[in-house]
Amino acid sequence: MIGGLFIYNHKGEVLISRVYRDDIGRNAVDAFRVNVIHARQQVRSPVTNIARTSFFHVKRSNIWLAAVTKQNVNAAMVFEFLYKMCDVMTAYFGKISEENIKNNFVLIYELLDEILDFGYPQNSETGALKTFITQQGIKSQHHTKEEQSQITSQVTGQIGWRREGIKYRRNELFLDVLESVNLLMSPQGQVLSAHVSGRVVMKSYLSGMPECKFGMNDKIVIDKQGKGGTTDDSGKSELGGSGKQSIAIDDCTFHQCVRLSKFDSERSISFIPPDGDYELMRYRTTKDIILPFRVIPLVREVGRTKLEVKVVIKSNFKPSLLAQKIEVRIPTPLNTSGVQVICMKGKAKYKASENAIVWKIKRMAGMKESQISAEIELLPTNDKKKWARPPISMNFEVPFAPSGLKVRYLKVFESKLNYSDHDVIKWVRYIGRSGIYETRC
Amino acid sequence: MLLSVTGEIFELKAELNNEKKEKRKEAVKKVIAAMTVGKDVSSLFPDVVNCMQTDNLELKKLVYLYLMNYAKSQPDMAIMAVNSFVKDCEDPNPLIRALAVRTMGCIRVDKITEYLCEPLRKCLKDEDPYVRKTAAVCVAKLHDINAQMVEDQGFLDSLRDLIADSNPMVVANAVAALSEISESHPNSNLLDLNPQNINKLLTALNECTEWGQIFILDCLSNYNPKDEREAQSICERVTPRLSHANSAVVLSAVKVLMKFLELLPKDSDYYNTLLKKLSPPLVTLLSGEPEVQYVALRNINLIVQKRPEILKQEIKVFFVKYNDPIYVKLEKLDIMIRLASHANIAQVLAELKEYATEVDVDFVRKAVRAIGRCAIKVEQSAERCVSTLLDLIQTKVNYVVQEAIVVIRDIFRKYPNKYESIIATLCENLDSLDEPDARAAMIWIVGEYAERIDNADELLESFLEGFHDESTQVQLTLLTAIVKLFLKKPSETQELVQQVLSLATQDSDNPDLRDRGYIYWRLLSTDPVTAKEVVLSEKPLISEETDLIEPTLLDELICHIGSLASVYHKPPNAFVEGSHGIHHNCILMLIVYNTGHYCPSGDLLGDLLNLDLGPPVNVPQGSSMQIGAVDLLGGGLDSLLGGDLGGGVGGSPAVGQNFIPSSVPNTFAPSPTPAALSSGLNDLFELSSGMSIATGGYVASKTVSITGHYVHMFYCLYFFCCVFSFGVIPTTPLAMHTPLMPSQSIDISLPLNTIGPVMKMDPLNNLQVAVKNNIDVFYFSTLIPLSVFFVEDGKMERQVFLATWKDIPNENELQYQIKDCHLNADTVSGKLQNNNIYTIAKRNVEGQDMLYQSLKLTNGIWILAELRIQPGNPNYTLSLKCRAPEVSQYVYQMYDAILKN
């Protein structure tokens, strides 16, 4: 199991050091600093073995978190734990920075004592932790006996992510479908790979211990219902699904509140939600993706000292919808001496420090087209090495889900309190963003 | 903050004793801060412990943190804290009870541990699950400090009871603790996995935290279901975990499923459904954070080797993204090649070509290499690969060109006489090659196709100019290439070959080079026709997948999916110290003699160097060789047999037998093995050796005698040795600074371990020893008894044994006879067990005793054996099955030796 956990600043100074196992000595702290943080070369692996000791590290801004072990530990678990550790710290004191860590080191030690015992990760849900690890640190003494047992049963219990007795005057639910669409296209316009990775993020302000059921236009569910003859149309129109009937989901993963065995057997998504913000599910699709933009590049080398670049972008969605925050990034060679740009729409600038022409458009409606052309002057070089021609990348945001996913329903049942599904105010929003959206040129 | 340490400590001491609680708390915080940055604040121990008696929980936790760090260095004062702990374990607040028991377990001081037992016993039965789950982990802590105490106090039973606890987290922690404890008792069935317990675990699996699910899944993967029905029902209950958001849960579930798949009938519907279900979650892992992607990719690399069908449709997800971290890129590339097939090769090649223009040198090289591997793997694509490589050579980027030439050599070896038209293009780049690999590849190509390259002699001659500055690899290749050239075009190249042979034999210190030079020389001078047959013989084609992990190791790694072993692609004992309490070190003991005899054998060389390449045999030289050979043999045998043969030298004492440690009970100790003298032409002294094994892991001591044939004293002896087949290398190089007088002997022991580079030797158990002294470097080789490589965890599970036996193709089965052995089956088992050959099952078939046995080598190769013993018949039949059948011969020899000892 994890033998020790260290946090360093960018200089390699130790901010936090907690050792769980006897086989990890103080020299491990230095070994990591010397061999990884101060290493001459860029680190080639997130797992490093130094003198039979394995170091796992992740970096958040300029802070290094390192877990150390001498055993054959579950490597995936160690990384997941480090991510979780970051989440917990962020939930307690915001951004992970040197200053915040220094100011909260007592709290961090307290957390580390709680969420790692002898190197075994323990309950690390912030919801539960916040009930008894507080920044005031004295709260715990004032708990009554019932409160104490409530805390312990929550920390160890089946529903570790939610506490009892939550009350809201207004029961409200916010549901965001956030998708990032990824594309790799050949210069000839052939899709080399495309996929959507999506997340359903919720904010729930619900009283009691509500039982929720979430439905979407999952092809497997819709097909099953179609076969069965009993169509559940009431749900379908509830949150306004239209367009494509159903979508094929390659795979999905769920927050630990979702009953996985039920999903496996009936493909229904049911759960008791955590309070506040959480990510309900992640999914991935590869079929029938709506690619919001197409990029058509044309790069011509004119002699040894000049490049002509022309890029056309076409929007490919309903004309009534508006895409925002559009940015096209056209890489330029390292020996660029000057660039002249002409674009029909938006603003374009050559950024020498980033070796790219950045073309920004605030808004663009569907089924439109826009173009940029640039002349790039090059310094003659002796460098034999050819320019690598990085792909043209694009950023944007569109108000629909490129996968075609639609929320069909989200039902809330709370039998003990007297509010029904209809009393809950529900909000649904779709946002499609570019992930890695690249066209080779 | 840059106060002098003493000043700071003085100040802190005052603050710690301040009357105000708040002040004291601030002071303890400062102490902890100083501790974090590595300052020694242990002298404040009594003052900090004084602050422990408080109702402020935060302060208490800080003091505990301090205690955990320094108690070990101040054991006497740590006792002061015991009372407070014991009291806290009775506190009405479960959080405080748990805190106390958790902290006490972290204080590794014997006296405190004694006091821990009673509170721990209570806490294991506490009414509050939070306390119980903490107590469960505490048992593991205590076991780490004092294993005996944990057993004596019956804590293991309490822990086992917790598996049936009503609270899922208690179950999960109990499982985690038991799993870890059982690792140090490999043979005890601590966890007692039976269908009832498995059922409890599967129930808890649905309810506990993500971490708990990982503990339980990792534990489940060690279970061997009794039949396929049970395997299927476990699989059915594990599959839902594939949708968990935590990638570790997913990977651990994949591990269980991959393992149990083996037990399901291959043609069943369920088997195929399960296979299909495995692919999407694996792909999803690649959309996680880069570090998890890396772990996933390393595991996928194993999974596609074991079951390529799972991901064969998914090659696109392994295409490299421009912004992927380099470690992700390199791993994706590996998997792309593994998945490359006729169906997708066009896409793959287009990608690889794209990558070859990237910036990162390692990545580009690997991409170029990958193109070569595609050509070798997918025959239909070879032509396209070659043309892609030619395009890349045209870029003139130095490292791209060099890498391309290396892979083109391999393509030539796979498809001879097909692409020679490109040689001209390759030759254009001769000057830019500065890496040994690339130079050697180019030289090989020129030599191999010398008859079609008009100026081959010029090209090779140009390399010859700086012969001594080249690396050994290039020198060896160049030697061979010129000999090939000579055999193909003898008329024009006689001078060249003379030149290279004299460079290799006369002017080089490298024994390999010298030996090879002499071999060619002899060959060419004795019989050019035979030489031609030997040197220009048809070479076997290279196989398509040279980089696959050895199947038994692969199976082992599959059982470690998700863990570090799967990331390193090494079995755990290769990087974990003292796994299963075995230290894989052996000791090499050298005894050096200087017998002070002088043997004038140096002149041999002179004659050889005058060798004429014209007519075949040269009588005087032949006889001179013979004299040398007799001489060598005489000296060698002499020292081995303790002078019995007395071939001229005589008087060397018998060595080897004395060095078997007497403390070793019932363990086979082989007699000294003859040492082969490989540097015979300079036999100033000689060497013989023996090996023995000791209990407690294996400690092999090797005895070596070195008989001097030279009157001089030796100074500064250094010993190095390695058995490449098993990666044996000395843990530290050994240097001996005292001079060695004639007839003097010195005992040297050299600890060895098996983490060195692996290279196949012939014979496999060949040990190479180099001895360096004030005169020269001497090389010896000798044989190690294979049994020192048998590891203690070589006992296979019955079911695995059956499955593996079936799985290994029949042609790998080899049969041997062990003659004249008069032991009964039990004695045989016992004797073998002492040498880490384990009997898994014994059956009596028609009056014959059948023993089924397994053993494992340090490099992870398993050997399965069936030993048939007929009562009254002194000849036993031994059938050996192994994925690497070449070891069987040596294993048989060990059986023979062990049973007859």
UniProtKB/TrEMBL annotation, chain B:
<dbReference type="GO" id="GO:0006886">
    <property type="term" value="P:intracellular protein transport"/>
</dbReference>
<dbReference type="InterPro" id="IPR000225">
    <property type="entry name" value="Armadillo"/>
</dbReference>
<dbReference type="GO" id="GO:0048513">
    <property type="term" value="P:animal organ development"/>
</dbReference>
<dbReference type="Pfam" id="PF01602">
    <property type="entry name" value="Adaptin_N"/>
</dbReference>
<dbReference type="InterPro" id="IPR011989">
    <property type="entry name" value="ARM-like"/>
</dbReference>
<keyword id="KW-0472">Membrane</keyword>
<dbReference type="GO" id="GO:0012505">
    <property type="term" value="C:endomembrane system"/>
</dbReference>
<dbReference type="GO" id="GO:0016192">
    <property type="term" value="P:vesicle-mediated transport"/>
</dbReference>
<keyword id="KW-0653">Protein transport</keyword>
<comment type="similarity">
    <text>Belongs to the adaptor complexes large subunit family.</text>
</comment>
<dbReference type="Pfam" id="PF09066">
    <property type="entry name" value="B2-adapt-app_C"/>
</dbReference>
<dbReference type="GO" id="GO:0030131">
    <property type="term" value="C:clathrin adaptor complex"/>
</dbReference>
<dbReference type="InterPro" id="IPR013041">
    <property type="entry name" value="Clathrin_app_Ig-like_sf"/>
</dbReference>
<dbReference type="InterPro" id="IPR016024">
    <property type="entry name" value="ARM-type_fold"/>
</dbReference>
<dbReference type="InterPro" id="IPR013037">
    <property type="entry name" value="Clathrin_b-adaptin_app_Ig-like"/>
</dbReference>
<protein>
    <submittedName>
        <fullName>Adaptor related protein complex 2 subunit beta 1</fullName>
    </submittedName>
</protein>
<dbReference type="GO" id="GO:0031410">
    <property type="term" value="C:cytoplasmic vesicle"/>
</dbReference>
<dbReference type="InterPro" id="IPR009028">
    <property type="entry name" value="Coatomer/calthrin_app_sub_C"/>
</dbReference>
<dbReference type="InterPro" id="IPR002553">
    <property type="entry name" value="Clathrin/coatomer_adapt-like_N"/>
</dbReference>
<dbReference type="InterPro" id="IPR012295">
    <property type="entry name" value="TBP_dom_sf"/>
</dbReference>
<keyword id="KW-0813">Transport</keyword>
<feature type="domain" description="Beta-adaptin appendage C-terminal subdomain">
    <location>
        <begin position="790"/>
        <end position="900"/>
    </location>
</feature>
<dbReference type="InterPro" id="IPR015151">
    <property type="entry name" value="B-adaptin_app_sub_C"/>
</dbReference>
<dbReference type="InterPro" id="IPR026739">
    <property type="entry name" value="AP_beta"/>
</dbReference>
